[in-house]
Amino acid sequence: MLSAPLRKILPSGATRCHDFRGGTKSLGNYVPDHFVCGKHCIADRSEAMMMIIDPGEGRVLQALGLNALTETVYRTLLAEPDRGVEQIAAKLHLSEAEVREALDELLELTLLRPASDSRTLRAVSPEVGLIRLLAHNQNQLLHRQQQLETARTAIAALSAEYTDRRLDDEMVVRLDSLEAVRDRLEELAATAAEECLSLMRGGAVRPDSIQAGKHPNQVALERGVAIRSIFQESFRNDPDTLRYARWLADLGGSTRTVPILPMRLVIVDRSIALIPSDPSDGRRGALELHGAALVQPLCALFEELWRNGADFGQQPAPRDDQDLTGSERALLQLLGQGHTDESAGRKLGLSLRTVRRMMKDLMNRLGAESRFQAGAQAVRKDWL
Length: 384
Description:
By secondary structure, the protein is of the alpha+beta class.
C-alpha cells in the first residue's frame, strides 16, 4: 500500500507514484506486477486496480447523486478536458456507450456545459458545479423534511384518532344477551380480587336470577371478596328475595335497601362496571365499562346510596322521625312531582295495588279526604 495519505491510482506503465491532484485516474492498458514508491513496495496489479484517489471524497460525491462511473468520467474531464469519448473510453477501460451514458448524467446534473465554440462540452469546475449541485440537494432535502414533517403531523392525528377509537372499543364492551351477562358475571366473580358492589333495581328478583347469582357470589365470598348489595325497599315484601339476602348475609355479604335506585349496576374491584343496555329491559344485555373516568363516578353513586340505605336485616322496614318508611316518603315525593300511581310504582318497584294501598294508609294518617288535601297536610307536617 502507498504510504501517502491519499492513495493514487498509478497511470499506465508507471513505475513511481505521481501526485494526481486533479482527481481519480484509472489505470492504463498495462500495470506492472509491482510498483515502487521511494523505498516502499506497494500492492500487486489486482490491488492497484482497486485504488482510488480518496475513498471519503468519492462517497461525498455519491451523496450528491454521482455514481462511481460518472464520477470517474467527471474527474477525467476535469484533469484532461481535451479528451474525447473514444479516448476516455480507452483510458478508463469502458465502452463508448458507458461513457456517453455518464456524459448524459453529467449534463443532467449540470456538471457539463458547452464550450466557447458551442461544438464541444467542458466539465464545470467543482467550485461552481458541485456547490450548485450541493445547494440543489440541500433544497431537495429541505423539501423532503417538510414533507416528512407534514407526514408526521398526519401520523400523529391518525394515531390519536385510532387511539381514541381503540380506547372507546376497550372501555365499553357490549354484552348482547342476558346469557352473555350472566356468563360475564360468573367470570368476574371468579377473578375479583377485593370487592363486588351491586344495585338491584326493580321489582322482586326473579327466582332464576337468584339461582344464577348464587354460585358466583359464593365463589367470590369464599375467596375473601367483599360483597355489598343495595336492593330497593320493595324487595322486603318478596319472600324469595328475603331468603336470598339472608343466605348472602350468612356467607359474609352485606345488604341494604333504599326506596329508589336509578338503575341496575355491578362494580368489580372498582375497575369494571356493568350497566344495562336498556334500563327498562334487562334481557337486552349490558354494557361493560372500563377505566376510572367511567367507573369511579358509579362507585361514588353506590357509596352515597349505601350511606343512606337501611340494613336489610331490619324487619320491618325502618321508619324515620315522622314515622315514615323510605318507600312512603319517596311515594309522597314522586306524587308531589306529578308522577301517576303507575309511574311511581315503577320507580319504587311496587305494584299498582301496593302503591294505592300505601297512599290510602298515608291519607288516613294525615286525616285527608283527598290527595290534594293529603299533599297540603304532608307539607304542613314536614313530610315533604
